[in-house]
Recover the amino acids of this structure.
C-alpha cells in the first residue's frame, strides 16, 4: 500500500517514570498501528542534539535536552496507513492544555515540558529520526494476521 508509513515514537522520560509506557503503546496498538521496532534506551546529549536539531537556539532547548536525557525513553518504530499523521493526532497538540481529550497529551499531560510523547512530523523527519534510533537490522517486517480487518 502506497500510503503505509513508518514513523518514530518516543515515550519520553516522564511517560516511562510515570508507568505510562503500556498505556501509550496500547493506544497506538488499538488505533490499528503496528509495532516494527521497540527498545528502551537512555538518550545521551549527542543523540538529543541530533534528534532535536530543528530546535537548537530556541529558549526551551537547554531544558528540553536536559529533560530528554534525564531518564530512559522507550523508542518505537510504528507502521501503518498514514502513520505519521495518525500518530500525531493520537498524541495531541504539543501543549497538553490545548490537546483534545481522547489524545495522549490531552488525557495524561498538563505541561508542555512534560508532554509524554514524541512523534515524527513529516516523512523526511521520520526517515531521519528512525535512523537515529534504530539500525536497519532492528526493524522487523512482519505480517499481521488481522490486517484485513484494520485496513481495506
Ligand atoms: P512536538 O513534540 O509536538 O512535535 P515541537 O514543536 O517539535 O513539538 O517541540 C519539541 C518538544 O519541545 C515538545 O514536544 C516539547 O517537549 C518541547 N517544547 C516545545 N515548545 C516548548 C515550549 O514553549 N516550552 C517548553 N518546551 C517546549
Ligand atoms: Mg516536533
Amino acid at each position: 500500500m502506497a500510503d503505509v508509513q513508518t514513523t518514530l515514537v518516543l515515550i519520553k522520560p516522564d511517560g516511562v517514570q510515570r508507568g505510562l509506557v503500556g498505556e501509550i503503546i496500547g493506544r497506538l496498538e488499538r488505533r490499528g498501528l503496528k509495532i516494527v521496532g521497540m527498545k528502551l534506551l537512555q538518550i545521551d546529549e549527542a543523540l538529543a542534539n541530533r534528534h532535536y536539531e530543528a530546535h537548537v537556539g530556541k529558549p526551551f532547548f537547554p531544558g528540553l535536552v536536559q529533560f530528554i536525557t534525564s531518564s530512559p525513553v522507550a523508542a518505537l518504530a510504528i507502521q501503518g496507513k498514514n502513520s505519521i499523521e495518525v500518530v500525531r493526532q493520537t498524541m495531541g497538540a504539543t501543549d497538553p492544555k490545548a490537546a483534545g481529550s481522547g489524545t495522549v497529551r490531552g488525557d495524561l499531560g498538563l505541561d508542555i515540558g512534560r508532554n509524554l510523547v514524541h512523534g515524527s512530523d513529516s516523512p523526511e523527519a521520520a526517515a531521519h529520526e528512525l535512523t537515529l534510533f534504530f539500525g536497519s537490522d532492528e526493524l522487523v517486517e512482519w505480517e499481521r494476521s488481522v490486517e484485513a480487518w484494520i485496513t481495506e
Remarks:
- The longest strand covers residues 73-81.
- The mean pLDDT is 98.
